[in-house]
Amino acid sequence: MAETSPGPAQETAPARSGGAAPASEALSLVPRAEGKQSMKDFKSDQEVRWCPGCGDYAVLAAVQGFMPELGLAKENIVFVSGIGCSSRFPYYMNTYGMHSIHGRAPAIATGLAGSRRDLSVWVVTGDGDALSIGGNHLIHALRRNVNLKILLFNNRIYGLTKGQYSPTSEAGKITKSTPMGSLDAPFNPVSLALGAEASFVARTVDSDRKHLTSVLRAAADHPGTALVEIYQNCNIFNDGAFEVLKDKEQAQEAVIPLEHGLPIRFGAPAEDGLGSRGVVRDPATGDLRIIDVTEEGTEGVLVHDAQAATPTTAFALSRLADPDTLHHTPIGVLRDVRRPVYDTEMAHQLEHAAEQGGKGDLSALLHGNDTWTVVG
Amino acid sequence: MTSQVESPAGPQSGPEGGQGPGRDAGSKEVRRLDRVIIRFAGDSGDGMQLTGDRFTSETASFGNDLSTLPNFPAEIRAPAGTLPGVSSFQLHFADHDILTPGDAPNVLVAMNPAALKANIADVPRGAEIIVNTDEFTKRAMAKVGYAGSPLEDGSLDGYRVHQVPLTTLTVEALKGFELGRKEAGRSKNMFALGLLSWMYHRPTEQTEAFLRSKFAKKPDIAEANIAAFRAGWNFGETTEDFAVSYEVAPASSAFPPGTYRNISGNLALSYGLVAASQQADLPLFLGSYPITPASDVLHELSKHKNFGVRSFQAEDEIAGIGAALGAAFGGSLAVTTTSGPGVALKSETIGLAVSLELPLLIIDIQRGGPSTGLPTKTEQADLLQAMYGRNGEAPVPIVAPSTPADCFTAALDAARIALTYRTPVFLLSDGYLANGSEPWRIPDVDDLPDLRVRFASGANHELDDGTEVFWPYKRDPHTLARPWAVPGTPGLEHRIGGIEKQDGTGNISYDPANHDFMVRTRQAKVDGVEVPEVEVDDPSGDAKLLVLGWGSTYGPITAAVRRVRAAGDEIAQAHLRHLNPFPRNLGEVLKRYEKVVIPEMNLGQLATLIRARYLVDAQSYTQVRGLPFKAEQLATALKEALAHG
Fold first, then answer.
1. Do B473 and B505 meet the contact criterion of CB atoms below 8 Å apart?
2. What is the pLDDT of residues B502-522, one digit of tens each?
3. Whole-prediction pTM value?
4. Which segments constitute the Pyruvate flavodoxin/ferredoxin oxidoreductase pyrimidine binding domain (chain B) (predicted)?
5. In a 3-state reduction of DSSP, which class is residue B271?
6. ipTM for this model
7. Do B458 and A363 count as a contact with CB atoms less than 8 A apart?
8. What are the backbone dihedrals phi and psi of residue A348, each rounded to the nearest 5 degrees, phi first?
9. Nearest CA in chain A to B304
10. Domain A25-260+308-350: homologous superfamily in CATH
11. Chain B residues within an 8 Å CB radius of A363
């Protein structure tokens, strides 16, 4: 077996030629691909084993199609997953990958990304994996702001274990484990992430490839942890869960599309071509409410600011969604702010320590300050 | 053998050290001892651990052999003056090589009634007891159940009791400082340290330097403590109550030539991990969650960022090992440190590491269990957890250090196994090794083992059609290790996971024959780990009884064996560094003896493994008191085993 000893400790990306787009700050240390890549380069030789019609296929295709755009050396890309249907994802990507254990992918990826800044590390997880058994790791990854991109496939059901309710299932849901209806109040993953100090939070839908890709792009460019909630249809155990967001007519009422810098308008077009509904702040309570702009005018309609200093408005936006009907569900990038990135800071501490104390001298360390000598 | 061995000091006594702050201790009678056991005991807030540490440092730099036993409650500040709140520090030092912190103190320093009551049972008649009389108030004595004063009711007859108003004397000594009585009284532990330093001719310069540096930001407090320390020394020198001081000569002949320092198990372990990283030329990554008694390793490694050490304090035990495993995938020397309850939480990830076949060190500083158990006390009851505590067949090599300083070597050895065989490895230390200390001959860095590894860099398999491919589970035929292909290596992109893998390709496989093969291969890999043969100490070769131990019982067992031999009996001793796999010659060694006795601080876990594996009727001798064995107690047990042979 041919083996050599390259160090994993390298901290700078060799500038390879022929890459695609210029590297963003988040990816500046990741080596660029030589030559042009195509979607095919990211397909592994493994047979995809999701159920026919599963929303996961669409997400896989979108990710494989999007990867060449990043122009990264694919050996420097790693997909880490937990357990669940979506967590089979790494097997289908022709990159490095680890299919780990239930809920722990963010922890494992934290160690990898924290020690290898030359890698682009992606976590693939589901609503059960990320929000139930792995809830602790998710919130702490977001809080730390490690350079990870977390794709949370939310189908509001446990699929791999054949149909129990999940932490995002609507209250009262009838499943095999809740024949009289679930008693749990669901999590809103976007609200949760915002509460956990996330620096990037977005929501998208499996079937809207264009939107999904645009969110992936924004996440990839974000330095720090990015959480992307992807509404994903489980056609076996929870079919049609997001139909209201996909059906053109219903979506007009259900979806609040968010674009940074644009007024938050949705619904059937008003005279100005934008949606007839708008989101305004109630001066009495400070909370958000939805108005009909044809009646109340466009003055006061909020302009979406994903880079707002505080997550307050993003959180309020996330709370507009009705967990039962999914009406007024914000879709898009809710929050995208810069703050110190854990692995960058950790590397700085190491550099600083070496500057201050000199590079470690093992013999000096072992000797310490209090020694005595025995002569023979 | 529990009392002090005394002889009048010769005229040439005390040339090195033994000098108080600018004074000559020679104006009183000086007796020479070959060894002394001192126990400092007081309230959790009295600073007994610091006092013991300082006395230990003085003793180490003087050149005695020594062994220590800190013993403290889990509560940071238990209610003052109560029995559960008593904290103690025992130090055994000698002019020859010693193996344990000692069975019974020759000197007990009791800072309050609770400390006296909690410790008196361990102190043999004839020993010296120094009590702080200021604390022996009616209320304080009643609090711990003394009906009358033990200082007056004759219950201490037969002891040499020194009644010293430590608090009052300290406050008096600090009159020149602008401190209240309460504040000044806090320095009474330094007064006691000064007194003991006078009694045993300890060098004092280092303690003064230590206090100046510890309180660098509060020079007044530093000077007050130094003044209390000197006052204690002077008190010994001048008061008639202390008529005699003692010398314990350096243990020069006990030590091979070299440079020495005093070191605790957790510090030695931390240094071993840094050394392993340097010798492997791999960055060290520690994923950990605070837990007693392992946190000191996290603290220590966090100081050495200039060695490229990344220490990560995770949100929980699971994330600690998860992050370490992620770093291992990325090519770091990865470590997680914990104690028994943490191991329980990490079990699933250890199983994943077994399946992924990545190098990973799992450091378990064992403590009393089950559950939260005795967080600050020692035990070695995690052996079977380390051996079997996972779902499925998930073999993990196990390494155990035998003394505090040995934790250094054990860490390097655990790293060797992990890196060579691409496997998680358990290192089982315990609370006694972690906090206990002893002199350590500092190794020459050039003599440390070369742990460098080779990452995979290219194809390793040719398909039938001639295509060159990389197979992540194609093994080294000798070690059965799979290649370590780290992300960033072009052409080796591969996916691994916890689902059973096809031999060679590493692709998901549910094939029955493949699973059977993979389970057996993972076991064979661990069974094949190269470990040195176990050495047997059997001077005459005629012993009929073998005493077998592992881990931190090495000191007490060896001391007990010496006593048995000193009494004229023959006994063989062997001690295991490797618990999985066992040394190749262990079965043959066991069969050589008519009787095998296995002392353990559990209910017979090694004995269970030995009996199952070798069909040897090993006899278990166990204790789970949260404290190490006493040498005398073990010697008695061994003599009984010999007698009933």
1. yes
2. 999 999 999 999 999 999 999
3. 0.93
4. 285-501
5. helix
6. 0.95
7. no
8. -65, -40
9. A360
10. Thiamin diphosphate (ThDP)-binding fold, Pyr/PP domains (3.40.50.970)
11. 444-445
